[in-house]
Amino acid sequence: MAYFIELLVNGALVGLMYALAALGFVLIYKSAGVPNLAQGALVMMAAFLVWYLGSLGLPIWIAILAGAALMFGFGLLVERLLLRRMVGQPVIMVVMLTLGMEILLRGLIPGVFGASPKSIDLGIGLAPVIVADVFMNRAYLIGGLVALLLIGASMLFFRTRLGTKLRAVSDDHVASWAVGLSVERAIGLSWGIAGIAAVGAGVLWGSVQGVDWTLSTLLFPAIAVVILGGIDSIKGVLVGGLAVGILGSVIPGYLDAYAGGSTRDVVTSVIILLTILVRPHGIFGREDIERI
Amino acid sequence: MTILKRIGQPAALALGLAGAAGGAAAQDKEPIKFGLLQDFTAVYTFVTGEYNQGQQDYLTLVNEEGGVDGHMIEAIVRDTGNEPQRGIEAYNRAREEGAILFDFLSTPVSRGLVDQVMKDEVVLITPLHGRGDAAAGETFPYVFPTMATYWSQAAILADQIKSSDGLEGKKIAVVHIDSPFGREPMPVLEKIAEVEGFEIRAFPYASPGNEQSATWSEVRRYRPDVVFIWGAGGGQSVSVQQAIRNGIDPAAIRSVVWMAETDANNVGADAMVGLKRFEATATGTDNPILERIVEKVIEPGLGAGDSSNVGSSYYNIGVATMTVAVEAARLALEREGAPLTGPKLKAGFEMIEGFDAEGLMPPITITATDHQGGGYGRVSEWTGSEWKPVSDWTTAYEDIVHEEIETSAATYAGGN
Amino acid sequence: MFYRLSGVRHTSYPAARQLWPIAADRWQVGVLALLALLAPLLISDLYLGSYALPWLIWTAAALSLSLLMGLGGQLHFGFAAVMAIGAYSSIHLARGGVPFEFALLGGGLTAAVIGTAFGAAALRVKGLYLVMATLAMQYLVDWVISNVPAISGGAQATLRTPEVSFLWIPIDSLDARYYVALLWTVLMTLFFLNVKRTSFGRALAAIRDKDFAAAVIGVDPFRTKLTAFMTASFAGGVSGAILAFCYYGAVTPEQFGFNVSIQLVAMVLVGGLGSVVGGYLGAGFVLLVPIVLTNLIAGLGAAGWFSISQNLTAHLPLIFYGGMIIGFLLFEPLGLAKIYDNIRKYFLVWPFRHSGS
Questions:
Q1: Start and end of every Leucine-binding protein domain (chain B) (predicted)?
Q2: What is the CATH number of domain B151-279?
């Protein structure tokens, strides 16, 4: 039983950390309708930036704040220089553009800062948190809490005046224009916030696995989370993250010994397939109504 | 006329350059070309930078000291991004430029090109990557692992446990990345377990290994006495962190060769004290060759990269691979004379006897049948600031390793 | 050269429906075909084996995918897995003694069956969700290949292609391998050019543009989508088999990994959706530009044009490559084929300015 609870708890915490990587993806999709395949690269870039600022001698929390400011600016810049010029083009071409950006950042960031792995020390420590015979991973515990905090903050944000505008824009671009909302500014803002979310994911994952280009591969678990939860729902990110994390931890925990290999990716793939077959728009996603 | 002039100028310039190059070559002896066509941008980035820097710096040292019998060594360095099609292109191009030795430092590229290399009769070195069974020289005449294969590494790690605490009755967990590389040590370890009477169990984690918590919950419940970690890159430091968080003493961890200073920094240099790894070369600059590199290459500013990497684990591995290659070239030139070709260089490799690169690595002897060079290595321990050897250069369970090499090579010879 | 549309008058429907109604285009195709046939005599082994050969095979693969993505509008992010199924099953068939010609067909059929099974998900979802379903296929196939040693070829996970002959000609020399690849790519090209003119091709286009609307006018979306998945998977499977036999010679799971799927999608998109010229240009761009850039930058570095670290030199091609993709899309979002088309149209009526076709 303790084994089950341990798998459950650690899986949930890891899932929250995946959700953090997925948050930026959802924010951009929600406002602009663009699946941002460069979100993983943004996570990597954020981690490298924070590492670099830290290596200049800044205390880690200042480095994180400065990194967040820089990434916010970078998000705005990307929207202004690239995405805005693609408005009205087929979505698949915009996807390709984000893929091009992913390749560019994958070259630029390790090229400039060095490809060998760097480390970010958050001072979390390695001792486990033990509650009633259940070992919890301290880094994941803190990561999960930060993720909860950031996801909660985004949910609250969508209830503010600015957030309401963003929701309106995500509902209907043309109608928003008609009532005088600046769609461009709203989309730009969501890219900026996605940049900040990338800092959270980059720093937490970077402190666990080291900072190098492989951080950009977080995109895939993030996408699984998004598909499961619903691509345009922040609540969905939370639930989807928990589900992917828990199922990807508990099932392999019992199955691996018999399968003779790690079954985590298989479990995740099957979850995605089943979700798509049963609820194509995810748990909390909005069902599209199509016009002929 | 203006158009002609415009075309004419670069052409003349190119001719002039070619003439100058030709003139220079006529004065010196013909250069020896090595193709270091590696993965600088994808899966192997954790090692390639330092490894390749070590290789280039050593070759610069050789050239600064007058080359091999007057022949300069020219390194053709290209990125392949771990993609077979780019590896094939880079290989064919470098071969056209006259390279006779190749190092891809990428298992998929090396495995994909093994047949081609043997057909073209040029030397492929596969230190610490590629096919383990390439140690069988008759089956793979042009492929030289030159360093301990993963099978030998597993055997040496097991042997060190045997000589320190004994193996009998122990429970050993092998936590590995779920890929052919991660599964590679298992057959050898299982056979050793039979001989020595200990229990062994494999715990695979999903690639790329940035998240392993479920696997380690299981490992803890197994209550192992010793844990082998078999991965590479970021997954290794995640493994160590997870082990410590699950109450496993770092001193009980044994790692494959891919464990370096950067991983220690990731885990926390003090937290990892006691962890033991396999090593194929000595670490640090406390060695005649490294001292000469510092003096003649790094200090004059001829180094190929960040000088703080000099002496790191992967840097020294890179240096060691090139010392073997240069020694082989020297022997080949001595016995067979210039110009050097693939078959001559191969013969040179097989003449290497008791070569230890002035103490940088174990003395290796490569023969026509054994391209691994004996499979020597040692175990070293992380002290918090450096790697301290805890065993001598040694080789272990040679019969079991040899059997594994033979069976695998036989399958290759049989068509696969 | 001069106003190439002059003298082109269609007096019958078949004449207007020709693949290349304009004489200048026919000449161009003829010259290119001749060059492709004579390539082994014209270019060195380096360029034949490392550039022309992979370019042809990847073009065939990109065309297979373009059939699904460009004509049918069904996104597929697991196409490398389809190719892997084709490659692995054809090698196992050939090793089992099946003649190469049938092994190729067998590889294609296996890929078609498994590919269609996964494509069944396409009947429920579209767009991004289809991307995810096919991505899941990629991971499942990868897992099976690398976790079943009987498929991947034992502990070393390398499966070598046996020696085979195609129509009694042994496929051992580079020239022979080149011609087999050329034959398959030409077949794929002709198929692709013609499929657009069949009722199946038109049904696909109707589905792509709006599947509900297509259903209303009597096109069965279920059957059409399934057939599209089957055809594309078959072609992808054969392309994978050709890739294994004619180019790699030994297959490892990494050769058909997730990043290869992304590269294939990039080939189709950068080239231009549903275009034959786009298939060729896109495959060439994605496959060869990183290689050319790597050599160019290394060459410039060696000639002393700039002095930067080894690390940055290695990453520069990625930077330029990514930058080029972004640049092309900003410049012409419809891909290289559209750029080619613009140039072609300009010259069709040169020295005049506008053309109707």
A1: 31-383
A2: 3.40.50.2300
Distance from CA of C303 to the nearest CA of A (A): 21
CB A45 within 8 A of CB A287: no
Chain A CB contacts of B218 below 8 Å: 3, 253, 256-257
Long-range contacts of A76-84 (CB under 8 A, 24+ apart): A76/A188, A76/A189, A76/A191, A76/A192, A76/A195, A78/A191, A79/A32, A79/A184, A79/A187, A79/A188, A79/A191, A79/A192, A80/A188, A82/C326, A82/C330, A83/A32, A83/A34, A83/A187, A83/A191, A84/A184, A84/A187, A84/A188
Q: Which of B45, B203, B246 sits opposite A116 (nearest CB)?
A: B45
pLDDT of res. B1: 35
Chain C residues within 8 A of A269 when measuring between CB atoms: 136-137, 139-140, 143
Q: Give the architecture (CATH level 2) of B31-148+283-375.
A: 3-Layer(aba) Sandwich (3.40)
Residue pairs between chains A and C whose CB atoms are closer than 8 Å: 129
CATH topology of domain C23-348: ABC transporter involved in vitamin B12 uptake, BtuC (1.10.3470)
pLDDT of C272 > 70? The answer is: yes
Whether residues B93 and C290 touch (CB distance < 8 A) is answered with no
Indicate whether A27 belongs to any domain. Answer: yes
Share of chain A above pLDDT 90, in %: 40
- Residue boundaries of the structural domains of chain C: 23-348
Least confident range of A152-166, B15-29, B148-162, C101-115: B15-29
State pTM to two decimals.
0.90
In this predicted structure, the answer to whether residue C173 has a pLDDT above a threshold of 70 is yes
Minimal-distance CA residue of chain B relative to C152? B180
Number of domains in chain A: 1
Q: Which residues of A touch C320 (CB under 8 A)?
A: 107
Predicted complex ipTM: 0.89
List chain B domain ranges.
31-148+283-375, 151-279
Tell me whether residue A234 is in a domain: no
